[in-house]
């Protein structure tokens, strides 16, 4: 029996339609004091530079296409992003995003008419790789279908969960391995102990100095809700440090702006501050706070109520330093709850 098909909420945002926003609502300030540039298909960003007005561009335009290097391009639409590399004979595409295969193909054709000869799955989450079949259908007249490359961990997970998405035709050894595309070495750096999901990994385009690791962090923002949909917080800091230690100039995180090492420094500082604020609140808020035990007949309300108050206090304590940044109000309480669970569990 096939599973029912579900669409990610975020994949539906601006995937097929665009919206208008108030022109006088300013963009949130940069978390890393970045220099902003208008997007360009021809002019590469310097390392550390970012695309200006990215929130408005995601709302009001079909997609954003930015040249990173001579051969690597960064794509985003509806707050979902990926990269592609134009080789001598073909195109290497990472993560055919759900509901965006037509726009991704259109953006590639703005740059080159070369065939898409390889696809890489960064990890087995349908919102990032769910557009693969539609893309394959759109390029079926190519002389040859593209290679579909994934880590062995991703291939095993797709098999275990009976994925309905096109399966990899090639696998890379886990947690570390590499493959060659048209003279470009691409390295897999898998997180043996991963926060986001068990097959989460970072892919390094060695000669291009570009790192692609969707859902590791959203550049130019505080951590997104539930740390970008992570299944656990426990290993996130070590994953960030592992990726930051690699040799790259441009970071593609699947969401947020084009990233730099400064974004990793910001995230690690923010997480450290939030951990300290959560720990302080846990010491101040007694278990059972806010619950009238004379009106309940089950204790299950007590833990989430305790966590919610801890998260509220931690969020308030960080607001003076971080409250002006993108998505702080929405994301921080949920992230604080994840940290509270972590601190409560591991002592």
Automatic annotation (TrEMBL):
Enzyme's top EC category: hydrolase
SUPFAM superfamilies xref list: Metallo-hydrolase/oxidoreductase
Keyword Signal in record: yes
Entry EC number(s): 3.1.2.6
Database matches in SMART domains: Lactamase_B
Domain Metallo-beta-lactamase: 80-255
A GO MF label: hydroxyacylglutathione hydrolase activity
Keyword Acetylation: no
Gene3D superfamilies from the UniProt entry: Ribonuclease Z/Hydroxyacylglutathione hydrolase-like
Signal peptide coordinates: 1-23
Keywords: Hydrolase, Signal
Name assigned to this protein: Hydroxyacylglutathione hydrolase
Primary gene name: gloB_2
């Amino acid at each position: 029996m096939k599973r029912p098909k579900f669409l990610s909420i975020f994949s539906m945002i601006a995937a097929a339609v665009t919206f208008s926003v108030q022109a006088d609502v300013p963009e949130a300030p940069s978390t890393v004091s970045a220099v902003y540039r208008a997007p360009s298909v021809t002019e590469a960003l310097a390392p550390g530079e970012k695309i200006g007005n990215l929130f408005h561009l995601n709302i009001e335009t079909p997609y954003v296409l930015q040249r990173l290097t001579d051969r690597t391009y960064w794509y985003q639409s509806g707050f979902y992003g990926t990269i592609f590399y134009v080789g001598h004979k073909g195109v290497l595409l990472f993560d055919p995003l759900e509901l965006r295969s037509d726009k991704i193909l259109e953006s590639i054709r703005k740059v080159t008419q070369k065939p898409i000869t390889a696809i890489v799955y960064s990890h087995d989450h349908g919102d990032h790789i769910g557009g693969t079949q539609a893309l394959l259908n759109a390029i079926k007249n190519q002389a040859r279908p593209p290679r579909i490359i994934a880590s062995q961990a991703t291939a095993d997970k797709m098999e275990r969960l009976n994925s309905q998405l096109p399966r990899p035709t090639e696998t890379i050894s886990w947690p570390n391995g590499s493959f060659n595309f048209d003279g470009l070495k691409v390295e897999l750096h898998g997180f043996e102990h991963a926060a986001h999901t068990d097959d989460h990994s970072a892919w390094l385009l060695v000669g291009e100095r570009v790192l692609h690791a969707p859902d590791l962090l959203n550049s130019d923002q505080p951590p997104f809700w539930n740390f970008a949909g992570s299944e656990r917080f426990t290993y996130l800091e070590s994953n960030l440090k592992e990726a930051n230690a690699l040799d790259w100039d441009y970071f593609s995180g699947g969401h947020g702006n084009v990233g730099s090492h400064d974004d990793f420094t910001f995230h690690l500082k923010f997480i450290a501050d939030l951990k300290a604020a959560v720990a302080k609140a846990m010491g101040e808020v007694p278990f059972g706070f806010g619950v009238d035990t004379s009106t309940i007949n089950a204790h299950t309300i007590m833990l989430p109520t305790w966590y919610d108050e801890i998260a509220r206090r931690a969020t308030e304590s960080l607001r003076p330093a971080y409250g002006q940044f993108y998505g702080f109000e929405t994301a921080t309480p949920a992230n604080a709850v994840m940290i509270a669970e972590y601190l409560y569990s591991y002592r």
